[in-house]
Amino acid sequence: MENRTNMQIAMQLGAGYGIDSGAWRMPGGDPTAYTNMDSYVKLAQTAERGKIQMLFMADTPALGVDLTNRPPQSPMDPMLALTVIARETERIGLVATLSTTFNDPYNVARQFKALDVISHGRAGWNAVTTSNQAAAANFGSQVASRTERYERAHEFIQLVQALWGSWEEGAMTLDVENGIYANMNKIKPINLGGKYLSSHGPLPIPPSEQGQPVIFQAGGGQEGLELAGLYASGVYASPYDIPSAKAYREVVRQSAVNFGRNPDEVKVLPGFIPSIASTEHEALERRKHLDGYTDLTGKVSYLGAMLGVPLSFDDIDRPLSPELRKYANANPQDPRSPRALELVMRGMTIRDVLAHGVINYHPIIAGTPEQVADFMEEWYVSGACDGFAIQPDASFDGVSAFVDQVIPILQKRGLFHKDYEGTTLREHMGVSYQYGLRL
Amino acid sequence: MENRTNMQIAMQLGAGYGIDSGAWRMPGGDPTAYTNMDSYVKLAQTAERGKIQMLFMADTPALGVDLTNRPPQSPMDPMLALTVIARETERIGLVATLSTTFNDPYNVARQFKALDVISHGRAGWNAVTTSNQAAAANFGSQVASRTERYERAHEFIQLVQALWGSWEEGAMTLDVENGIYANMNKIKPINLGGKYLSSHGPLPIPPSEQGQPVIFQAGGGQEGLELAGLYASGVYASPYDIPSAKAYREVVRQSAVNFGRNPDEVKVLPGFIPSIASTEHEALERRKHLDGYTDLTGKVSYLGAMLGVPLSFDDIDRPLSPELRKYANANPQDPRSPRALELVMRGMTIRDVLAHGVINYHPIIAGTPEQVADFMEEWYVSGACDGFAIQPDASFDGVSAFVDQVIPILQKRGLFHKDYEGTTLREHMGVSYQYGLRL
Ligand SMILES: Cc1cc2nc3c(=O)[nH]c(=O)nc-3n(C[C@H](O)[C@H](O)[C@H](O)COP(=O)(O)O)c2cc1C
Ligand SMILES: Cc1cc2nc3c(=O)[nH]c(=O)nc-3n(C[C@H](O)[C@H](O)[C@H](O)COP(=O)(O)O)c2cc1C
């Protein structure tokens, strides 16, 4: 295993509020964060103060949620938000998600490479196939079969990389004296095409300080693993515990090996939600405060279903009754259920059990900075991951709490770098230089 | 005719250098301007100092030129460049060209509305159909028939406007106390579709300070005129003289009337290239200096063809011989040829005739600030235009020369505003508020 001293951290910015649907209501936060670039910039600058390797924007081109009580989940536009941030930060990486299903390779290649040049080599592209029906409907189509989406994704990513490489290094001469702007022998069409897509090129954008953007990947089963193994330097993952995380990381690494790559070149970053306070009790109070901003009816019945017992909102401030405890069991299909069962059995109220985050998509630690660091260390040193994609519960103070309180502990323990390795995302991540298609 | 005191000026930024292909070599300029956002920002801030209503980015998604001796013609990416500028300026409008042929309406609606919100109501979209074969090849297609391109453009623009309107005004409540983020009765799907395109929506972006971006249009004969009359508040045009400009403006205005609109709502902005110096002689020297950076062989023979006489590069520093003058005549198909003939007949050398800009795509005035202002005044007061889309010869000093020397004259003559009318592009242009589709 490679040296475990360079934990990779991606800070997720989302719609500007944090992952908790009540976060937009937190006193001291900015309810307008979604539309207010100043809020994004502030979060980005805070993350950069913590030497966090990259910002990360998940994205689905559709309004996936009812906004009556909660904000959107995606930014207004990830490329424009990261462009704003590029100019108001110096070092931090800028990773945006863009779908290979609902875009054209030329446009994607152009915008990411422009962002890479504008940011002096800090751009990354999370290439996803998007299986969301609402997104498909926005483009007048329906979700294609997995096979078709992934075949297209391969063509798409290869075209984008070929376009990136079509303006070769050293092509831009800028020889004012002799009037030679560029060497056209080094700027060539790609003329590549497949079953779904083709492009002629060249893309008239020179290399950035890191050559071309770093590729990320997320989800998609066996087909997704092939994308990861072939192209990705970073994988955004969603395991819930160390055994499943380890297993997933192993298959990602094996996929890289299958395609002739060094597995250390692919960093697996599980999503993780820290809720930080000075005591565990306060952290749980923070989470209950956030929960208090939203309707928990659905979550209570979801927890009941998870444990195989009927639960309704009226039960929320009581522990599970002794009779129901007899019937409660951990659903073997759901990695989150053993922990839920354990907390219920300790006699906690349902509200407290929920505050522990047992039914969230990603693992949650509600606790002190030490407890958060302990969680991260345990996963990291056991080889369950190469770092984390952090989703702050509420961003406005959650990012600074992580940066000011957790990062120093990780640094003291020798797990996280003390400063950026260089100026580019590739340097921060410790992944190899690549320009154009990998041959 | 409306009051002629609010001349509209769009400053074109192009690839950052200016329209002259030798501009990148000018001493004092920035040869890296294409990739250097600081250069773009500086130009934008200079234009804003001059109260210029808007910046304008033409764009074709293809490398249309050989870069051996000259820079690209389009920016790396117009949306990203304008996003950078949005954050580093306060008032100036931000208009980008994006093709209706090589994009998806949802993506275009999203990026322009995000830019509009980020810039607090300063975005504009120049919707073009792009008849360029190199562009088509970058998207794996061929140039479709004009009919098809314009049918698609109608559907495209209507879908974009409908998506813009799908998040109604007042939908975003941000009621922290009661936990009401938005009123979902005011955020509705559009469910619109046509022959080529459809989209479900909604687009989850609230209105900007100007509601939605301003629409521009350029080119395309009768079909283009229909687009202009139906949707555009600004038309980028390329007439060469006052009679043709007047005629073109009249048909644009008539097209607006045909579609039930007030013709004053459509501003026609011909392209115009000022070359400014303290004397006419110096201005011509400036142009000859710029010409000296490029190979004029092609231009000399082009001039010969225009006048119906054989000319070669060897003739460049001589006037036309008396014998050839007998044969020279103004090609009636080319509005630029009478002026070319006149200058030739005055006995100027070919180099000097070319320096007057007689074969450029847009009219050129090489002269003093007064001469430039005189030209603009004559066109404007005679109703040949509503303003201009300025293409500086070389931007690095051409924009500031225009702002510091020409603008004050236009202001003194009461032709150009002394300050911005408000904070939004619609206010600067004096065009009506519109939100969603015009019904
Ligand atoms: C952790 C994680 C994050 C993801 N983020 C996104 C995203 O931001 N946008 C998106 O469109 N899809 C995202 N996906 C979805 C994947 O692209 C993929 O469509 C999904 O996993 C469904 O699998 P399938 O594509 O094999 O049907 C994500 C998946 C995972 C596991
Ligand atoms: C002044 C002017 C500027 C134009 N600017 C652009 C541009 O920036 N990008 C582009 O793709 N097309 C541009 N066009 C081209 C038009 O979209 C149109 O394709 C062209 O006029 C050819 O006409 P057609 O579409 O009817 O074939 C421009 C046209 C004119 C007259």
From TrEMBL, chains A, B:
Alphabetized Pfam families for the sequence: Bac_luciferase
Keywords: Flavoprotein, FMN, Monooxygenase, Oxidoreductase
InterPro entries from the UniProt entry: Diverse_substr_monoxygenases, Luciferase-like_dom, Luciferase-like_sf, NTA_MOA
Domain Luciferase-like: from-to ranges: 29-383
GO molecular function, one term: monooxygenase activity
UniProt record similarity statement: Belongs to the NtaA/SnaA/DszA monooxygenase family.
Protein name: FMN-dependent oxidoreductase, nitrilotriacetate monooxygenase family
Classification of source organism: Bacteria, Bacillati, Bacillota, Bacilli, Bacillales
